[in-house]
Amino acid sequence: MKRRNFIKRASLTGLGLAVAPSIISCETETEKDKKAIATVTPVFPIVVATWNFKNATKAAWEVLEKGGASIDAIEAGCRVEEADLKNTTVGNGGSPDRDGNVTLDACIMNKDGGYGAVVCMENIAHPISVARKVMEETPHVLLAGKGAEQFAVEQGFKRENLLTEASKKAWLKWKEKSEYKPIINIENHDTIGMLAIDKNGDISGGCTTSGMAYKMAGRVGDSAIIGSGLFIDNSVGGATATGMGEEVLKTVGSFLIVELMRQGRTPQEACEEGVRRIVESNPNYTNFQVGYVALNKQGEYGCYCVHGGFGISKYQEGKQTYIKSNSYIKKA
Ligand code: ASP
C-alpha cells in the first residue's frame, strides 16, 4: 500500500493510528496495522443528537433504517424539533430576541462537504429545510435575515407567526427586569445538533436553533456557522454543539473536534479537548454551558460539556438510548 493511502486509512480507523506522517517510513502495512484496521467494525446506521430529543432521533432513524440517505434523516429529525411548540429554543415557539422577534439560525452539511445555512431568519418555521435549499438550489452557502425569508417564500415555504402566547408571556415577564444572564441549561437549552451515518457509511449533520433567549436584535450564534455549531468531513466524522454560541464561535469548536479526530483522537477525547479549549482560556466558564457531541466514521461517538445536565440521544441497531454526558465541572 502506498504511504499516502496508508495515512488516509490509518486516520480513518479512529484508533489512534494516525501517527505523524514524518515517522511513517514504510511502504506497506505491518501485520499489526492490518489487524488493527480489520478489527474496526463500523456500526451504522446511527444517529446522535444533542439533548434528549427522542422524537427527533426516532424520525431520523426511520429514514436510516429504510436505507435512506443521512442528509434526509438529518432534515427529517431536525424538523421534528422545529415543529415542537414546547421547545422554546428551536423553530416555531422559539423564545424571541429582546425586541420580541423570533429569529432562527440553521445549517446543514452533506457527505460531499456541501453546506447551506440561514441566519436571523423570521417567520419561517423550518429553517433546516431552507438551509438545505440554500445548499442545493443556490450558488451561495449562507443567507441572512430578509433575504433568507424572501428566498424561503420563493421556494414555497409559508410565512407564519412563530411567537407563541407562552413565549410572548415569558418575554414580557423578562422585560420587567431586562437582565441578560442566560440561565445554564435553560435559556441555552434544546438547540438540536444532529449527526447521522447511513447504511452506505456516509455522514451528514444539521443544527437548528432560535438562539439565546432575549439576545440582542441581529445576534447570530454558533449553530448555523460552519465549523462552529457543526462540521462534517465524510472521511473523518462530524461534530456539533449546543450552549453559549459566542464561546463555540471563538474556538471554532466543531471544526476543532473533527480535526482532532482526524489526528487520531476518539470522539470522546476530541469533545473533551474542545471543551478544555474553551474553559482553560476563560475565567468566566462557570457562568455558561457548552455541550459537544461527535461521531466518527466507525459509528463511535462521544460527548462532553462544561456543566452537568447535558446529554445526547442516540439511535443505533434499532435501539434508542439517552447518554448522560460527563462534564468539566464535576458536581460536588
Ligand atoms: N448555541 C445556540 C446559540 O448560541 C444556543 C443553544 O444551543 O441553545 O445560539
Written overview of the protein:
The protein has helices at residues 3-13, 31-38, 54-65, 70-83, 127-137, 145-154, 165-177, 245-251, 253-262, 267-279, and strands at 46-50, 104-109, 115-121, 142-144, 192-197, 203-209, 230-233, 237-243, 290-296, 301-305, 311-316, 319-324, 326-327. It has 332 residues and is an alpha+beta fold. It has a single domain (29-325), classed as Glutamine Phosphoribosylpyrophosphate, subunit 1, domain 1. Strands 4-3-2-6-5-1-11-12 form an eight-stranded mixed beta sheet. A five-stranded mixed beta sheet has the order 7-8-9-10-13, covered by helices on one side. Strand 9 and strand 10 (301-305) form a beta hairpin. Helix 3 (54-65) packs antiparallel against helix 4 and helix 9 crosses helix 10 (267-279). The longest helix is centred in the first third of the chain and has 14 residues, at 70-83. It is globular and about 55 Å long. 52% of the residues are buried. Residues 1-29 have low confidence and may be disordered. The structure holds aspartic acid. Aspartic acid (ASP) binds next to strand 8.
Number of helices: 10
Which architecture would the CATH scheme give at its second level? 4-Layer Sandwich
**Topology order in helix (H) and strand (E) letters:** HHEHHEEHEHHEEEEHHHEEEEE
Oligomeric state: single chain
Mean of pLDDT: 88
Question: Into which percent range does the helicity of residues fall?
Answer: 25-40%
Number of separate structural domains: 1
Rg, please?
20 Å
- How much of the sequence lies in strands comes to 15-25%
The CATH class: Alpha Beta
Low-confidence stretches: 1-29
Question: What is the CATH superfamily classification?
Answer: (Glycosyl)asparaginase
Major sheet: 8 strands, mixed
Strand order of the largest sheet: 4-3-2-6-5-1-11-12
Gross morphology: globular
The CATH topology annotation reads as Glutamine Phosphoribosylpyrophosphate, subunit 1, domain 1
What would you call the structural class?
A: alpha+beta
**Number of E-type strands:** 13
* Termini Cα gap: 52 Å
